[in-house]
Design brief:
Pfam families: 2OG-FeII_Oxy (PF03171), DIOX_N (PF14226)
Keywords: Iron, Metal-binding, Oxidoreductase
Organism: Dioscorea zingiberensis
Structural class: alpha+beta
InterPro entries: DIOX_N, IPNS-like_FE2OG_OXY, IPNS-like_sf, Oxoglu/Fe-dep_dioxygenase_dom
Order of helices and strands: HHEHEHHEEHHEEEEEEHEEEEH
Number of helices: 9
CATH topology: Jelly Rolls
Number of domains: 1
Shape: globular
Radius of gyration: 20 Å
Number of strands: 14
Strand order of the largest sheet: 1-2-10-7-12-5-4-3
CATH class: Mainly Beta
CATH architecture: Sandwich
Strand content: 15-25%
Distance between the termini: 40 Å
Protein name: Fe2OG dioxygenase domain-containing protein
Length: 358
């Protein structure tokens, strides 16, 4: 689709941002054509899905109720080959997971314009905010998605900072995922041949962000994208998704659907875990397709430590993983510097991690 020479993208981005009503606001207004800021160039549009076969690859599924050795082995294999896995038997009650999805949907659909306007922000240091596209002015294309951003650790926001529509369940769900994070970092440490407390002692679990995404049904899904192709910046991501689908992971140069499994959580390696594991674990690119059905609701928990601006801890390949046969592959960096570089690039381009290779 040719874009007219008179197209002023910056002005249209600013006008969209100033509505403070996000993509859902466009749907409420009854649009039938996607605004130009959301159009993906024809050469970058996802191909139409082909008919699936029983032989199609599937993201590994790990039951945490299995024996410790089996869980460690399966997590190691998944992180080395896929960078993604789904887990069951994780201990978070299904009623809490369902309530979290319902609360996010309620916020995006029922919160008053006044509350959304109060929360709408692009201030980097703000702990609780609502916006559409964190990289709206940096990304190559606007994504068909709105987000409630809540920084839950190391400092938990006060109750009145959180939106009333999902306040209680946000606090409860965040506590459950933080406990699960301890288990996962133990298993990941053991998968790398380290002591169970190694990664947590490195402050990999120090910070926790919950990004509650809302993907409205799209009138022209074939020319838009829900979330552009990207890898995650932090150490580890834990995703709760509804049953709509649309998440895909890049595996062996093919896009593979991460098919929703009831009560499962999606786990994926972040850039910083790939860096400190010296490429043992892979932070792989993934995306979310736009769809005509929905809304799709998901809650992504990111474990990182860039919130501690005073931290002088430098991260590089873990020394126990370095030898003459496996020399360090990355420069050392402060987490806040890596994340700032990642955010400056926006989604959809070259991986930020490549700029830190030796």
């Amino acid at each position: 689709m040719a874009v007219p020479a008179s197209y002023d993208r910056a002005t249209e981005l600013k006008a969209f941002d100033e509505t403070k009503s996000g993509v859902r606001g466009l749907i409420v207004d009854g649009i039938t054509k996607v605004p130009r800021i959301f159009l993906v160039p024809p050469e970058d549009r996802p191909a139409k899905p082909s008919t699936k076969s029983l032989e199609s690859p599937q993201v590994p599924v790990v039951d945490l109720r299995s024996s410790r050795s089996e869980v460690v082995d399966r997590i190691r294999a998944a992180c080395e080959d896929w960078g993604f896995l789904q887990i069951v038997g994780h201990g978070i009650p299904e009623i809490v997971m369902d309530a979290m999805i319902d609360g996010v949907r309620r916020f995006h659909e029922e919160a008053s314009g006044e509350e959304k306007e109060r929360l709408y922000s692009r201030e980097p240091g703000r702990a609780v905010k609502y916006h559409s596209n964190f990289d709206l002015f940096q990304g190559r294309v606007a994504n068909w998605r709105d987000t409630l951003y809540c920084q839950m650790a190391p400092k938990q926001p006060s109750s009145n900072e959180l939106p009333a529509a999902c306040r209680e369940v946000l606090l409860e769900y965040a506590e459950h995922v933080m406990k699960l994070g301890s288990t996962l970092f133990e298993l990941l440490s053991e998968s790398l041949g380290l002591m169970p407390n190694h990664l947590e002692d490195m402050d990999c679990k120090q910070g926790q962000i919950l990004l509650s995404h809302y993907y409205p049904p799209c009138p022209e899904p074939e020319i838009t994208i829900g979330t552009s192709q990207h890898s995650d910046s932090g150490f580890l991501s834990v995703l709760l998704q509804d049953q709509i689908g649309g998440l895909q992971v890049l595996h062996n140069n093919n896009w593979v659907d991460v098919t929703p499994i009831p009560s499962a959580l999606v786990i994926n390696v972040g850039d910083l875990l790939q860096l400190i594991s010296n490429d043992r674990f892979k932070s792989v690119e993934h995306r979310v397709l736009s769809q005509s059905i929905g809304p799709r609701v998901s809650v992504a928990c990111f474990f990182s430590s860039h919130f501690n601006q005073a931290s002088t801890r430098v991260y590089g390949p873990i020394k126990e993983l370095i030898s003459e046969e496996t020399p360090p592959l990355y420069k050392e960096t402060l987490v806040r510097d890596y994340v700032a570089h990642y955010y400056s690039k926006g989604l959809g381009g070259k991986s930020a991690l490549e700029d830190f290779r030796l």
